[in-house]
Amino acid sequence: MTHRPGRSLAFAQLANSIGDGAYYVTSALYFTRIAGLAPARVGLGLTLAWGVGSLVGVPVGRLADRHGPRGTSVLLALGTAAAVASFLLVRGFAPFVLTACCYAAAQSGLAAARQALLAHLVAAGERTGLLARLQSTLNGGLAVGAALGGVALSVGTAPAYRGALALDALCFLVCALLLLRLPAVRVPAPAGAGGGRRFAVLRDRPYSLLALLNTVLLLRLPLLSLALPLWITERTGAPAWLASGLFVLNTLAVTLFQVRTARSVTGLGSAVRVLRRSGLVTAASCAVFALSAGRSAWPATAILTAGAVLQVVAEMQQSAGSWQLSFALAPADRMGEYQGLFGTGVTVARTLGPLIVTWLLLDRGAPGWLLLGLLTAVAAYVMDPVARRAAHRRAAEAADPVARTDTLQHTP
Fold first, then answer.
1. 271 contacts 183 by C-beta, under 8 angstroms
2. 150-197: per-residue pLDDT in tens?
3. Is the dihedral of CA 62, 63, 65, 69 positive or negative?
4. Burial class (CB in 10 A: 0-12, 13-18, 19+), 197
5. Could you give the domains of the chain?
């Protein structure tokens, strides 16, 4: 059963990532030049929106557990399409914030529901490999979408910008249709009378701590899009176009090598080992980036390229290890709820990450890079004992479901 669902999930991922690529490269200029919003207000509105998005993962995941992940995923893909289409009508700050909150909530909820759908359609031993293929597909789709968005930017007219956003809305409609073709899944009834308390994942301390540590590792998300472009132009003599080159390098590397990287992750033991290696490689990449401070054009370019290579290796390792942990340590009857919490790390990193990395790197320079590397290395190493504790908890619950229900109902 794995092949057909995997292929449909890949096509759905490709569709929405093409739309996302077009949206990412055109939306900021659309909001400021066409919708007439001040740049500061656009930044504030998006921060508020992703803050809302970070809160909906667990409730939407629980909704997927109760009513089925396929139907929930389809509705959220349609909701995302409607939100993007609504941006075409936005005039004024308040409607923009409202629409952006709907967009972020639908995107975050869709990620949680689709992870739950994958978990129920794909055998446990094949999930990490499929997620690696989906990640490669995502990067390829983003590249195609960004190229299409680049055409809109080069034309520079209002219809061109609106066309890019309309493409994004259309891509999410296609995504919804592809998800609708997948078989419906029956989610196991929650263990124990009444299924335990609401939002039990928040009382699962080991799993919650794993999600928090993974959020620290995801601070890499704003590096390529924000921190490195600013660092290159303000702290080094490297040409400004290098930021685009490093982004392309990252995208191509993930597209080509993510699947190969994920093959070594086959269980909890290999997952925590690859996560520990990713922490060390991240620390090394940060140290290399720090060396570029004050360098002239060619030395800085060489150093930054070397740092970017190390960074993308760490990124692929971290992704593979965290996928394995997020699924293997979640109970089958609450997969959506647990994936919702784990996926919240992405929205939190997108919301707070820009503030943290700019404060660390641009205000503190090379020492800030070293501190960021140390922070991620420590978080990666701590995931090992926390994952083992979470695994022991899952094993105990599997052996005694009654004890599990009692824990969920009485844990303070």
1. no
2. 888 888 899 999 999 999 999 999 999 999 999 877 766 555 434 455
3. negative
4. middle
5. 3-187 (1.20.1250.20), 200-410 (1.20.1250.20)
